[in-house]
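Recap from last week: sequence in, structure out.
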Amino acid sequence: MSESGPKWTTGRPGGQTDRVRQRERFDAVVVGSGFGGAVAGARLAQAGLRVAIIERGRRWQAGSFPRNEHDLGDDWLWAKRGGLYDIRWLDRMVSVQGAGWGGGSLVYANVFARPADETFRPHWPASYTRAALDPYFDMVAHMLEVRPITPDPSTGRVPARTTAMEDLVAHLDLASGTVRPNLAIRFADAGADPAVPVANRHGIEQRACTFVGECVIGCNQGAKRSLDVNYLAVAERSGAVAYTGTEVVGLAPVDPGGYRVSAIRHPHADPPVDAGRLEVDADAVFLAAGAVGTTELLLRARDVQGTLPALSARLGEGFSGNGDFLSFISRSRTPLEPDRGPTITTTSIVDFDEAGRQLWFQVQDGAFPAVLARLVGNVMSRMNPATRFGTRAPRSRLPGMPEPHRSVMALLLMGRDASAGRLTLDHRGEAVAGWDNRANARLYRAEALVGRVVARVFGARARSAPTWTYLRRAITVHNLGGVPMGDDAASGVIDEYGHVHGYPGLYVVDGAAVPSATGVNPSASIAAMAERNIEHAIRRMTGDPTWQAPETPHVVPTPAPEDEATALMSQRRRARSGDGVRFRERMSGYLIVAGRRVPARLELEASIPGWRPFLDDARHTVRVEGTLHVEGRITRRPVVGDLDLFPDSGEAAMRYRFDLDDDDGMPIAVTGVKVQHRWNPLALWHDLTTLRIEIRPSDVGPGVGVDRGILRIPTAGVFRLIGSIRGDAFTSAKRNAAVIRFLGYFARGASRGLL
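Predicted structure tokens:
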């Protein structure tokens, strides 16, 4: 591009740049140093290519992260001269991301999680499966040295909120869906001093976690396995040139090939060259500025600067907030100690059907350190309209905002949203998100409800983020999409390997290339995709079809605890599809034992976990458990079995089956039946309340050693049975609907005897 081409701007008012002060040539330029950019920079440099990594933020060393809790200042906000957080108001959504050498890894919650295979349908190319990506997930896990939480070295136990969350899900019968996830944190070995630095796998010394709960505001202890101490360290050691404090504002093809990347230098630039515009040329460019940043850069190049006019018309589509939702739990009667431990220590999977459609998301406990609480309080007080117009004291709070002076735990939720947002440019050339809350209403409603359920069990209060409560604007820290995949420019911006259609050597390797919400913390997915796609790009660039990352021989599979939880909750969802009901039934009467009539009593708890499996089963089986008492033979023995409730075939209205041992330890089989006498309305009550019961030894044939009797439900017992019916569903409205549906089914089944 000639010097007379379009004038580059930052996309912000007053963003015009000075004359070019520096220009260099590289084999490859990587824009951004987050999970996609760090992987790309390391692998390209290891392949022997001359690489530049351009990062707009500064280098943050352990101990340098801000803690000035009452002053937003230069250190906190990117908009205030390059601070740690870039908070973007995308019109229909609020985006929060990190800015610095290491991107979002500097302030993320360290969770390494793999999405289930079902996540990759329907939006992803067929080549993307868990099996295909698992070797790359293992590579990322190796590079980050992930592991689950270990006990706090100061107490010898896990944080209180970890135990509280695990007790909570056990109380809700959801323990099988909860795990302690892998975390990219250095934990001290038992008995070791966390203050003593130990070299990580890449030769960078790190201290161990001291459980101060400050992962999301930058780890001053230096225990976080952020990208600057692994991938980026490998990249620089392999010869990559780093430009920090350097913001890319333009991209254009050059003759005879390759691209020119134009950037402005900020005051905190490193190396500290003269202020002005940096321009570098490269044969290949790998965009990794984050979903919003990468999409915004490409939209400007196509629609404002005109340098990449052939970019697909689909650019900006498929944007997702990964179903992010934030709740705050305060005033808990259950001890939580939310300022202790890593930011996240547990993950709970929620998976159920609603109106015939799957609703899936995960819930994570979140540390809320006092520094962050006071900082958020400061931000929110400035947002308070009453404060702005002088009707309240400057420190007044918005209702529902976190209370800095109280113990507050965050609940971090994310799920599989519709992934149907669209990023476009506003009149200032900045990205805005078209986002339909209605398309995600069920997900957001369910996530908000979980916050209230957790609060109720903890004896606490739950509040959603004020931006949602008052403005219906979700906050996302997991921007994804905007650069959809497709076979050609008509169906996508990039191919399955992130190569931009129509622009050889131009790649997208970050969250912008993720085709849909992962539902889990997406950093591992972004990095694994980058590993896969950069491997493919290097093979093309070097002509070596066998190239692999040098660490490959040393990688061993890393356990994925979330897989078992996801599978178990998926089984639970299928079994409980359509909601269910529970009820109690009590019958008493007699059995003829050895020619003698003896009293007998049967008390049962019956459950239909899911209505759809119940209806699909021709026997319409209900799971029952309770106790059976037969005087002199069976002394209130526990029973577990099945009840066929109005099966499709036969004359029986109900069939009961149990296996148990009698008082002498002999295995016995118990069966019972309620028979409908057709064409006799007067017999209906008798038929449905009278059970003909048989007991026989389990190891003999039919009719041998059988004791028979009659058990009945008294009139008062029928009303008790009806009153015991309870819906088993996520909300009270659905529980009530389940009861009404069951009563309707029972009435239709009973009416068969009248036909």
